[in-house]
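We treat protein structure as text, and this decision shapes the records that our systems exchange. Below, we set out a record of this kind in full and without editing:

***
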Amino acid sequence: MPAPRERLSLPTARRVALAAQGFADPSPTGAVDRRHLRRVLARTNLLQMDSVNVFQRAHYLPAFSRLGGYPMGLLDRMAYGDRELFEYWGHEASLLPVALQPLLRWRMERAAAGLEGWGRTRRIALEQPEFVAEVLRRVTELGAVGAGELRDGARGPAAWWGWDETKIALEHLFWSGRVTTAGRRGFERLYDVPERVLPPAVLAAPTPCPEEAQRELIRLSAQAHGVATERDLRDYFRLGVQDARTAIGSLVEAGELLPVAVEGWRQPAYLWPGAAVPRRVRRSALLSPFDPLVWERARTSRLFGFDYRIEIYVPASERVHGYYVLPFLHDEALTARVDLKADRKAGVLRVMAAWLEPGQLPGQVAAALASELRRAADWQALGEVLVEPRGDLAPALAGAVRDAVQI
């Protein structure tokens, strides 16, 4: 790698990263519309999906973090009505702008050959091609169909979440791009062939060679990061080490990525030439565990000094901070973390635990967090914020929530 031509302080790198993710953009002054959602997607390039719904599903949260309350049905219409977005493996399972579909066809081709996907989705392509072809034939015949309507035989072992061979075949077909998501029933994916789902212009778009597509994905990753290490850049779209390294080298040579050194980072870094460098970022936001700003935990630690792991899969007795913990961004720091639960039956947003980060002032953080929790409750049509007495920030936060109600 060429010697870095510039050195960035850690606060500058942090502001660059926040601006790249849209946290320096002006907040909407009126109702949020699709133009605002498009602006968010132009920053993030994708929305990671996840089945956990204890507060709200992951793909709805990044827009709330950047825009405030918005109608979630608008995002659904953009994805499943107007087809501005499509589902595929971007970072993990993701909603992506349809314009990116040609850039991921190399991944689909690898999956079709049994070279991408999980172990069982790869094996079924190699070991049961006739069965896979039959599942595809039935989807083509039926259209917009759930896995449950196609299932044959008994469900599989518990380790595979009850997926049987039909579901595994469908997931292989999804990886390989031969089926896509026509819509959702609850959170159940409805499968159909791309010809009946994706816009004709997208299907007719030329397929770039893998090297060209991967270069463009690294460009998009660099824009979304602002400043990033090689690992950060390849993680965004889950590119292989050598594929990403080749693409990064090509972009550096072309002057489209600038080698830099960031204060405190051991790894070399790269700056996107068009990255904004705001003098200050003022923003409060609750962040999904799957928000692009924090999903790469090593980067989160490097940027913010915030060590984070999601504890959903940790036994309850061993959890440190809680089940579904959201980092709280206040201005340019991650100042707290809260374990949230939307108790829809009671109409309450429950803060199961609240924790202050070292060096932060509890009163200041609690006041800002109480305001953001009220916004979150309003967005989710929950009438009350209730703070449970767990965590070192809980007393101050409970007081700030009470004060906000009295005002």
